[in-house]
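Exam prep: given the inputs below (a chain plus magnesium ion), describe the expected output before reading on.
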Amino acid sequence: MAQPLLKNLWWCNKNLSVASASKSLTAQRRGLWPSAVAALMFVDEVEVSLSAGSGGHGCLSFRREKYIPFGGPNGGDGGDGGSVILTCDRNVGDLVDYKYTPHASAKNGQPGMGSQCHGRNGANCLLRVPEGTVVHHSETKAIAAELLRHGESVTLLKGGKGGLGNVHFKSSTDRAPRKTIPGKPGESGKFRFEMKVIADIGLVGFPNAGKSSLINAITETERPTGPYPFTTLYPKVGVARNGERTFTIADIPGIIGGAHANRGLGFRFLRHVERCPILLFVIDIGSVDGRSPWDDFTTLRDELAHYGAGLADRPFMVCTNKMDVGGARENFSTFSAKSRLVEPLPISCATGMGLDELQQRLLALIDSQKAR
Ligand SMILES: Nc1nc2c(ncn2[C@@H]2O[C@H](COP(=O)(O)OP(=O)(O)OP(=O)(O)O)[C@@H](O)[C@H]2O)c(=O)[nH]1
Ligand SMILES: [Mg+2]
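Solution:
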């Protein structure tokens, strides 16, 4: 009973990246399915407001000491403001942290002091983001930074330079300068963080086609599966191992006809296969949900074309899942006859049929793409 309830919750919020915290809290209180609660918390797009620290002002001060007349200027420089630095961390799963704390700022530099003391530099603001994060300027939409791999780091906003104290301005003609330079303000701005999963292979298919079952069968990942649509509500990458070799494969929520017009979960999740150089169409050849497998394939191709980003022109493979179901063989013959340009591979996640060959073909395709 819990799952349909949560699905409704998700559908109500399908235009948002995540349902409100209060809703997921309610779900938790009701003791609902924990992975569904996790799905509600998955955030792959956020708006954040960031600011670097300002530089500390230079100090105006003179040495005043007994028996030392005309001690001269001794105002120190201000410290530099801290910068906003983004670091890519594979242990960060999504952008949910920024959904609830969308403001961050680095510390200001301290002002300079007498006796030529330099103000302390402001501490940097370190933000950890998941692999595959793209940072856009909110206003111009221009890309400010891309953090693809673990350990990559980028200074998004620079802190302001500290100002100069009056000690810098003494000269033969001005022995007691009263001039100082104020600290510079730090950079600031509004940004949109967008996370796009990175994998060698991206799965595309109707809900219930068996995408998650395929991931479960060939990788170590454990994805929820179920005989109803939209079991998967957020993307996940698994690592498949075939002999000595490995490749990554991304599972995303199902796409249905009219997804571009926001039917189902819409097609915003296709962003998570944008970074996959190869797509794998998973077709339910058993027609378990009563649809024609060939229509499913053409509909998915149409949705990719609607989405754009070159997805429709991307190299792909087709696997026809659920070959163990009655009527699948006839459907496969019809499908193969229609798809003259593509050679579909019959598989069954339930029996393991064709899974080894599928992995080998995918590895060969990955190699041929890398060789280009
Ligand atoms: N008979 C049979 N059933 C399968 C096979 N593969 C998957 N299933 C079943 O099909 C149903 C849907 O599988 P999922 O892996 O959840 O499908 P999905 O494409 O991830 O679905 P969404 O997450 O809703 O998009 C589950 O009940 C699976 O047990 C198969 O090869 N044969
Ligand atoms: Mg799934």
